Amino acid sequence: MGFIKICPVCNENYTSLVTYMSHIKNNHSKESPEIFVREAGELKWRLRNDD
To answer: What is the rounded CA–CA span in Å between residue 10 and residue 12?
Structure first.
């Protein structure tokens, strides 16, 4: 299975990591990195405080 990624900003589909990274750099460089590393609805893990 190859690389498949949908841009979370513009919803374009990419099948090449190089093309995807180039797209992010050229078109969305001012966006927050959080948008690209976290999927919608993804749970954020954290350690539980045992007070």
So the answer is: 6
Q: Rounded to the nearest 10 degrees, how much is the dihedral formed by the CA atoms of 14, 16, 17, 20?
A: -40
Task: Give the pLDDT confidence of 3-40 residue by residue, as tens digits.
Answer: 888 898 999 999 999 999 999 999 998 988 888 776 65
SS3 6: strand
Residue 42: CA count within 13 A, CB half-sphere: 10
Amino acid at 6: I
The whole-model pTM stands at: 0.63
